[in-house]
Amino acid sequence: MLSQESARRVSPWWVLAIVCLPVFIGALDLTIISAVLPEVIVSLRLPANEYLDQASWAVTGYLLAYAISMTFTGRLSDLFGRRVVYVVCLIIFMIGSYLVTAYDGDLLNSSVARFYNTVLGERPPRLEVRHLYLVIVGRVIQAFGAGAMVPVTIALVGDLFPPERRARPLGVVGAIDTVGWVLGHLYGGVMVRLFGLHGDAIVDWFKGFGLSISNPSWETLFILNIPISILALLGAWWVLRWVQTPRRTGRFDIWGTLLITLALIGLSLGLGTSPEAAATASSFEDL
Amino acid sequence: MRYVNRVLVLVVIVAILITGCNSEPKKEDELPKARPLLTEAAGKVQEADSFELQIRVSGYPVRISVGDFPLPDDLPLIFQYAEGVFVAPDKVQATVQVSLGDVATTADIVAIGDEQYMRSDLLTQEQWLKQQIIIGFNPASLIAPEGGIADALRAITKLEMVGQEDMEGLDVFHLRGEIQASEVYSLTFGLIGMKSGLLGVEVYILVEERLIEQVVLREPLPEGVEDQEPTTWTINIMGYNEPFSISTPEVGATEES
């Protein structure tokens, strides 16, 4: 509930509008990658016919992490407060968005190679494959943040609106989430096409303002998340201070979270595996 | 008490980290001499029954031609990456990644003596063809006493020991020098663009095993080319004396058949 003083200052619908912006962006990113995946594989200098299966984990990994994150972050916001959990998740989403584009960083790549050489005791994959793995890791981190914002926003509806008026805002949150992932594929495709056709014109347009930017590409789509998320973060930090989160007692169900995480990963691996591989696999690694 | 334990654990971790970070590099007189070290490591390549080879190219693109396959001038075939296995005395099996425009594709190549076979989805519809892909290449040249990998490494001039380093978790000696372009044919499967002139070379040798781990060649830009990174060849040698086997492919067969 908003306190009486704060209710005069800010409408609950304004609060909802601000916190729903990252929900929309996070949902958009669910499907954006499916449109730009061929572009990603080309820019990583990998043959599509051999690496499409691995690259598809940039889609599956996001969906999986998004779903896992949704299962427990609502409860976390009960225990630690909506504002803190929401803002932390938004920061995680921003870090993930940045990491998706920072796949060619020397430090990250040498860390992966070091992990293979020292921990796994085997030779690291070639640089381009490491780049692909880092894109996937970035996507998973992104999804942990994006998925978390949905249950926290739904919980916020409970805090902001009385029970008899919750149906409409809950519908709005659901619709925004759905519209995001419906539009993601279209948005990704249109933007990459636009960058391909008018990349030079965009660069020249920025030059007109004295700004020097590199040619836009699929990475630009993820970089764009950052300024939007910063605006949303500032807005959410400001409006959520008026929202009173009822203090809950009890503990966080670590075992339940772990079990549902493992179940979702298992289900995803199982369904994603071809029948032939499933029939002949003798270990998880074979899958 | 629980917090005291936690603090103690933290102190131990920090101490280990600080000790790790402060490990001083070896002094110059403690390091082995560069030339005998390189000769020893190169000898192990020449004596190996088998080894794996990875070649990665970055920077200015390396254009290649594949046998008699006609390709348009404005759409050159660019070499990107190769990994393969050499089995003494004269067998090589490799997967070579090339790009044609924006499309990257791979080709499997088997070379046994003077005979070469290739299979690629783009160029041969996944069928094995007997074809001279790299004209005049014989795998035996990789370990030939004259012109082989070991010989190329021994031909490095102005050799100096840079030091003992941690290369992504591997303990290596780092050597640096120069090499004539004509000497590196075997190291690059004859793909290097330069026919003459000097290239900068860095060699990394595993400290314990004294085996060549990586060779990095820097090829200067061709005349008239500016604003591009020079071509860098990163060659990794590994899997010494592993039990690899290479057999002659059945011409016309695909993977499924």
Question: Would you write up a description of this structure?
Answer:
The complex is a heterodimer of chains A (287) and B (257). With 287 residues, chain A is mostly helical. Chain A contains 12 helices and no strands. Chain A has 2 domains: 4-248, MFS general substrate transporter like domains (Growth Hormone, Chain: A, Up-down Bundle), CATH 1.20.1250.20; 253-287. Chain A has helices at residues 4-9, 12-43, 48-55, 57-80, 82-101, 106-120, 127-160, 167-207, 218-223, 225-239, 254-272, 275-280. In chain A, helix 2 runs antiparallel to helix 10 (225-239), helix 4 (57-80) runs parallel beside helix 7 and helix 5 packs antiparallel against helix 7 (127-160). Chain B has one domain (29-238): outer membrane lipoprotein receptor (LolB), chain A. In chain B, strands 1, 2, 3, 4, 5, 6, 7, 8, 9, 10, 11 and 12 form a 12-stranded antiparallel sheet that branches. Chain B is an alpha+beta fold and 257 residues long. Chain B has helices spanning 2-21, 34-47, 149-154; strands at residues 50-58, 62-64, 77-87, 91-100, 103-112, 115-120, 129-130, 157-167, 170-180, 198-206, 212-219, 231-238. Chain A binds chain B through residues 42, 45-50, 110, 113-118, 123-124, 126-128, and chain B through 54, 56, 80-81, 83, 97, 99, 102-106, 121, 168-170, 236, 238.
